Structures
1.
Amino acid sequence: MLKLDHVSKTFNPGAVTEKKALTDLCLELQPGDFCTVIGGNGAGKSTMLNTVAGTFLPDSGSIRVGEKDVTRLKEHRRARYLGRVFQDPMMGTAATMSIEENLALARRRGQRRTLRWGISNREREEYRRALAGLELGLEDRMSSKVGLLSGGQRQALTLLMATLQKPEVLLLDEHTAALDPVTASRVLKLTDQMVRENRLTTLMVTHNMNDALAYGNRLVMMDNGRVILDIAGEKKKKTTVADLMEMFVKASGHALSNDRMLLG
Amino acid sequence: MDLVKLLNQLPGAAAQGLIWGLMAIGVYITYRILDIADLTVDGSMATGGAVAVVLIMNGWNCWAAVLAAFAAGMIAGLVTGVFHTTMGIPAILAGILTQLGLYSVNLRIMGGANLPASARKYTLALSSVNVGRASFSNPIFIMLLVTAAVICLMYIFFGTEFGCSLRAIGANGQMARAQGISTGYGKVVGLMLSNGMVAMSGGLLSQYQGFADINQGRGAIVIGLAAVIIGEVIFGKVFRNFALKLLAVTIGAILYYLVIQAVLWLGLNTDDLKLFTALVVAVFLAVPYWKNRVKAAGHRRGGKADA
């Protein structure tokens, strides 16, 4: 469903600040895979997600989403295949527009924007039901500006927006990192529920090892811009955080350094 | 200090305010909706006047000339948009470049720095001559109709799927791209629409005053911003609906011209007018920033008191 083939990306090549973010990265997701991604600071997790999303183009290698080669496709052109939720709750929604307007924008992802009216009444009913599913009471505030919502509510809304038009791949970039622990776990449960219900192929970057193990059917660990560990199914289920730490040292040859990584 | 003299000048100020109100709606599109400060308008305001007057002199219908001015403004906006999106020039600089280039273009169109079009010689859409008359030819009446039509069209346009996508671009470009909206294309269309509106206002202004002038757009962006900000300061809390927000911009422009008329009456030298305007707009632009700083300082003090 998603295939990264020998993808490399270097920022500021030739400069003092040169940074090899991705080096010959290969990763393939099967339809329905829910893959969590962990790794130290600068391991290339976000860069990988951003290359898939098209925020910038890779220096070499190719990216396929479904049957489509999207390697050189502009960000807004490949958006039709991708649902995205960002780390910053501000990033995924338009604060000055209402909840229903945001949903209507997302509902038309990948379609031509015509001169037809922006939201129909039939859609409103659809949104009301979908919002009720979030159990945050947002279905009664559909014409409120999104800027009035809390970070957790905005992430839940962004998640809904990402899945309203079923994406081929759902990209989650530490989407609970900016939330308090209680809200973070609620949003994660919601994520899991949505991924299951829609059987979405998902790539979720997280800095929380417990979450990385608890959710999804597959886990990859990144270091120095490549995948160094890839476990799935039963093997993943049996793995503990301590195992993970050990595997990391063995695979990378150095200790895991990440002041943000949550171990327990 | 003759009060009657001031009162006599107020209808003219209101008519001018309504004409500039259209221009300010153009500025609102870029400055508020797309979040771009577009300086093209100083040039496209004069372009609109030049195109309208030249066409009228060549026998065009006065309203067709206004529409042609709109089209000319759209071309100016297209140029700025291409400079900005496909050539990667920062929006402000792109606008300045187009504005500078338009100076020559405007001279070419007019064949000089000033071009008179007297209401006695030509049929004009509106004229300052009729400002005191109680008839349908009164420019205030005509401009009220034009403004109402423009606000209606804008309200409908920005409610459509495409219009919503333009609003999303200004609100959050990253989100817009993630939803499959081309931010470059949207910005170009927005700039075209905005400058079309500005040039249309220029075309009406030239007919109103009976001449087109190479300098009629000088400082237009500042007047446009003044109208937007005055409208927001006064009606920001009450007017939530988009159409009402545009109405607030129009009223802002009218108030601006009434105030200008009043300070001139109070004895301000006409030569000092632009300096006065610039300083007033600077203060108004600073108000939200100061408000935030006061709020932040309050939070800091509050934090200490808690600890």
2.
Amino acid sequence: MTYYLVKRLAIGLLTIWGVVTAVFVVIRFAPGDQATVALGPDATVEQVEALRHSLGLDRPLLVQYFSYLGDVAALDFGESYRYGRPAMQAVLERFPATVTLTLTATVIALIAGLLLGVLAGQRPGSLLDRAVSTFTLGLQAVPPFWVGIMFILVFALQFRMLPSAGGGSPAHLVLPAVTLSIPFTALVARISRSGIAEAMGEAYVQTARSKGLTERSVLSGHVLKNSLIPVVTVVGLQLGNLLGGAVVIETVFAWPGLGSLLVSAVGNRDFAVVQAATVLIALCVIVLNLTADIVNAKLDPRIRLEAPR
Amino acid sequence: MTEKPLSTVAASGSPASGAGAAPAPGAPLLQVEDLEVVLSTGSVTGRVIDGVSFGVGAGRTTGLIGESGSGKTMSAMSIVRLLPDGAETSGRIVWRSQNLLDAPRRRIREVRGREIGVIFQDPLAALNPIQPIGKQVGEILRRGGMARQDVHARVLELLGRAGIPDPEQRVDVYPHELSGGLRQRVMIAMALAGEPQLIIADEPTTALDVTTQARILRLLADLRHQEGLAMLLVSHDLRVMAHVADEVVVMYAGRVAERGPAREVLERPRHPYTRALANNVPAVSTKTAIAEPLQGAPANPFDRPSGCAFHPRCPLAVERCRTEKPELREVEPGRFSACHRATEVAP
């Protein structure tokens, strides 16, 4: 277990380094830098050059890269020129709103997805199974940003039931969380459906029936937990994607989270904020994946978190 | 050996005995009469079990024997209604003077585990991989409302009775941490937990190596003698049958080919199929030992040959065998054979 954790930690650090490098490269190859964006289209070439010099952007890229890497290693993500304070501070301020949004979406997706998965997987090939599978395929196919806009049109503009944008109250959370959960619900439903359908055909389910258990007991005692393992793996992996999806959905609903901050930071070429935000998201993904593995090892005694000798 | 085997069900196709009547002393504990199972898988529909009748006497062991696909497992599992989806059953399965085939689900659940226990073929697959074995053995007791403390003590006792050394150390291990033989002992302990009167053992030794097979067979024989358990043993292995069974039912393509006292049937077959099986038991039993030396492939129960299903492979086949289905008839006292030329079958 200890060896495993150390190994995973080392891989995690390597991943962070990769993310930092990728973001550094991509953002610097994008046209325009923060000097031109900050000064606007009317600035003279001299003014831009002066600002670039003071920001250190005129140094060779490799020098910038290594000095930046050194800073990140010291947990210094630099100043946001836009907000005039440490970038990580600005990012962390927005972080709770994103966590609230993604966690709510995850809970919705798990409840709805598992429910659909159990309904469909209990009797593979039945009418109910096919109906649920078609429905979840539809859920997976619609683009979330479009669903978000439709929700705003229907529930906010037409019926005026829920606020269309902003944050601060549970009512504000409903539309973005449901929107964000839709593709995830479909995914959980499909994975748990196949897991349950597979488990239903296992010999040990027959054994459970031979002990005179009711179908409900068979399902709760011998099917559900056994089919959860792929679900946990997928949830762990997809929570990272969910953070990515949150970037889009937060923008649609003007949700004051990390995603909308990241989008505006990219637009402003606020390198420090972009880098701080991506590192934080990468860190979340790494921790979530590790958690999923540990949960699975707890669920299935055959999974060993040990290195083979 | 001397018990009169089931003359009431001799004429297959005529479910005779009165429903609800108390079983006479010495009468069979379980009686399967004219069982038919129609199975639909996708586009194919077939009568995979076609008029099968047999019985198990109290404290006795009946063996169902035949090649893969002969319907022996399906016949056994239909008793506790553990058949695949899409299987339709008819006939009568009389257990304690009640026909289980039209019993309500609730009654079937009572029978399962508490009156009839089941031991499955592959214990690794048949045990839940993510539950400690003790929990699985004790499940039926817990569901029955036994107190936690009592369940624990009883599980240890059951594991011990099934011949598992150091039950205290093993009660919390998972199936994959045990050897094949110990896993099968766990299955046996689990089948015993509900204190059934009958155990259905579906190829209980097939997944095991030869030495372990012998030990498990000895355990089953011991349990039978100590506890007076009746057993329905499903096996393709004639040596297992000769060792354990009192009566045998030889099945071919979903029908009974021959039925009678085990030793007599295996030593002096009255059906060419039984003779072919008996002559082909090699010195060392392997899984495929009986299937290979027989000429031709086993008949497909979905597409059974006309007349006697065995005729394409039968050395004694005559024209009549192709056209007329032989009924199971008493060819000598206590011996039943579904062969037109039963009396001509030489050992």
